[in-house]
Task: structure prediction
Amino acid sequence: MAQSTDLPALSPLADVSAIRQELNLPPRLLMGPGPINADPRVLRALSTPLVGQFDPTFRVAMRETMALYRLVFETANDWTLIVDGTARSAIETAMISAIEPGERVLVLSFGRFGQLKTEIARRIGAEVKVLETTWGTVFAPEQVEAALKAFSPALVAVCQGDTSTTMCQPLEELGRICHRYGALLQVDATATLGGTPLPVDAWEIDCVTGGLQKCLAGPSGAAPITLGDAFARRVYRRRHIEEGVRPANYVPGVGRIIPSNYMDLAMIMDYWGDGALNHHTEATSMLYAARECARIFVLEGANAIHRRHAAASRAMVAGLSAMGLEVFGDVAHKMPNVTGVAIPAGVAGDKVRNALLEDFNIEIGTSFGPLHGKIWRIGAMGYNARRDAVLLTLAALETVLAAEGYRFTRGAGVDAAYHAYKA
Ligand SMILES: Cc1ncc(COP(=O)(O)O)c(C=O)c1O
Result:
């Protein structure tokens, strides 16, 4: 057995001669819980020529990106920007910058990504309380209120959609409840932003983070974030600019220094602000991609996009049910962009996924923790929340399941989904 001091296993490259060849990966249809195929317009934006990060034209592109994401988040928040890194970088950047060691954080955990926020809060040294609910369910507002009353946290952290369970937590009331008890609300909308309604201002959410690789139809690697005034002020009072780039008139904030340089949101705000602080080297190509994701969202319109995701979800559920498969969890609170489905008895879950990948170039998701080996997670989001992608996935699944000996009415799944789309 590996000792804790051993380095991880790392097998050698099978075919060393391939390193001289151009990368040539198969054209997969990504129908898992994300990432999904990027919209071709986003891929084109990624190849926009590079300019310097302080080039006046790039600074304008940054301002445009901020304005576009205010529309995506439905907010007037000034501090709406992009954090460089995958979605968890924005979650961690926000939390490490807002919360000091010893402060209280309440995590509402209904799956693996609730566990992630717990992990981040604990690493920060916060006093963490975790409110848990069975995987496949969500919280009632009264449960959250009771926990707030008992624990008095400075921050409440929750997912909107947790892809591990496919559940979507209603958030309408949570911001107001948090504020009643003096707490701020941080929402991880990585998996839902752009596919599920999330009016940040109307719901009084103090900080929301997202990712591009799910409903926003981009690659992973840039994380949109929006900060309400109270959250932004909480962070900025901890502003400590690194020595090499301090302006002449620099006065440090009164709060404790943020214990990460890269994730120092106060310095990131200074970088995005008019002072254009020389912090990180902006990932310019990812900013082009993020801008294009938001532009596409605005072009199609929030209502149309949400309808497209809801239609894909209805069709997927109709199709899977018609095949005699059981949709996982509290379906009334299912995320529209991911559907969990129980692996039928006698069917080898991984074998089915491998056959879909090898024979049809279609990827669907496995699952984690208590659900591992019990459900598949099938996504239809962003660029792939399309009728053809849903029908193709169901058709391929029918063929593979039939080959595995699963008994059902052939064609029923595709037909039901087809008719759900027509209804
Ligand atoms: C709800 C949720 N939060 C956070 C993450 C982490 O995002 P990333 O892998 O981009 O860091 C994911 C990824 O699937 C997610 O679904």
About this structure: The CA atoms of residues 88 and 223 lie 8 Å apart. The chain has a mean pLDDT of 97.
